[in-house]
Structures are given as structure tokens and as C-alpha cells.
């Protein structure tokens, strides 16, 4: 490798091999896994295997010199490709589920924080409302004041009447 003096970017090794888009390949594997997991695929595969067996057993048009060896090879080949594709699709789904779980957790945390904030605010409003005078309390106080004024006016009226007589 050539010596570099610029240390702002890491060195990259030369890659040998096939380059592909992991997202496109993942989408392709999910489509295959979706198809392999359907009843339609199972019915089609069962019909093909049944035809293969019946053609070779009944000697209608035998194309497999050693019956079922080629069938076994084809089914093994199909399974060897299907299993990793299905696992890749499952891993991608697991990654999506994990991201959704993280979003749900953060949403739940925000909701809990908002709920706690609103509970504190409501408690503060209740405390503030405890100090506020109600209409009933105000009427009671006004009644007491009026009674006190009446008593004072009664006690001061005879005294005023005596002053005017003198």
C-alpha cells in the first residue's frame, strides 16, 4: 500500500468478489420466502413431485435412469437455497421489528413523561383551587358582616338618640 499523509479518512482494502445491493437482495429474498410460505407453492411442488414419481414408476416416459436420485438432488438443491433465503428474510423482519419496538418504547416514554407532567400540573391546579374562595364561603362571610353591621347600628342608634335629647 502507498503511504498516505492524510489521516482524515480510513484506509480501504481492495475488495475482491461480487458486489451487490444488500437491500435489493434482501427484498428479493423476502419475496421468495413469501412465495415459499404459501399454500399455492406447496400444491405446485406436490403436483410436480407426484408427476415425477408417477412418470418414473409407471415407465411412461422415464427420464431418470436411477429413479428418485435426480428428484432427491433437485429437492436438496431447492432446500439448500430456500433455507438461507428464508433465514435472511426472517433476519430482516427481526431488524424491522426491533426498530419498531424502539420507536414504541420511545413513544411510551414520551407518553409517560407527558402523563406525569399533566398529573403534576393537575395537582398544582388543585392546590391553587384549595385557596380560592367559593361562592358559599363568600355568602357566609357577607352574612356575618351584615349581622355585625346590624348589631353595630343597633348599638349606636340609642346612643345617638340620647345625644340629641340632651
Structure summary:
The chain is built from four helices and no strands. The chain has helices at 22-36, 39-57, 69-130, 135-165.
Give the domain tally: 1
Uncertain segments of ≥5 residues (pLDDT<50)? none
Total helices: the number is: 4
Shape: elongated
Report helical residue fraction: over 70%
- What's the count of strands? 0
* Biggest pleated sheet: none
Computed over alpha carbons, the radius of gyration is 45 Å
How much of the polypeptide forms β-strand, as a percent range? under 5%
- End-to-end separation: 128 Å
Mean pLDDT: 84
Topology order in helix (H) and strand (E) letters: HHHH
Structural class: mainly alpha
Report on the structure:
- This protein is an all-alpha fold.
- It has one domain.
- The chain has helices at residues 22-36, 39-57, 69-130, 135-165.
- The N and C termini lie far apart (128 Å).
- The model has no long low-confidence stretch (mean pLDDT 84).
Give the helix/strand layout.
Layout: H1 22-36, H2 39-57, H3 69-130, H4 135-165
Helix pairs in contact: 1-3
Keywords summarizing the entry:
166 residues; mainly alpha; 4 helices; elongated
Amino acid at each position: 500500500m502507498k503511504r498516505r499523509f492524510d489521516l482524515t479518512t480510513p484506509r480501504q482494502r481492495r475488495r475482491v468478489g461480487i458486489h451487490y445491493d444488500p437491500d435489493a437482495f434482501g427484498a428479493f429474498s423476502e419475496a421468495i420466502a413469501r412465495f415459499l410460505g404459501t399454500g399455492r407453492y406447496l400444491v405446485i411442488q406436490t403436483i410436480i413431485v407426484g408427476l415425477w414419481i408417477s412418470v418414473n414408476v409407471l415407465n411412461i416416459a422415464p427420464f431418470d435412469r436411477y429413479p428418485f436420485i435426480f428428484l432427491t438432488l433437485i429437492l436438496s438443491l431447492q432446500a439448500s437455497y430456500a433455507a438461507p433465503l428464508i433465514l435472511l428474510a426472517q433476519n430482516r423482519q427481526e431488524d424491522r421489528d426491533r426498530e419498531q419496538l424502539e420507536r414504541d418504547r420511545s413513544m411510551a416514554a414520551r407518553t409517560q413523561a407527558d402523563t406525569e407532567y399533566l398529573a403534576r400540573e393537575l395537582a398544582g391546579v388543585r392546590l391553587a383551587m384549595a385557596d380560592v374562595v367559593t361562592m358559599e364561603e363568600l355568602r357566609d362571610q357577607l352574612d356575618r358582616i351584615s349581622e355585625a353591621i346590624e348589631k353595630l347600628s343597633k348599638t349606636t342608634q340609642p346612643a345617638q338618640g340620647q345625644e340629641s335629647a340632651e
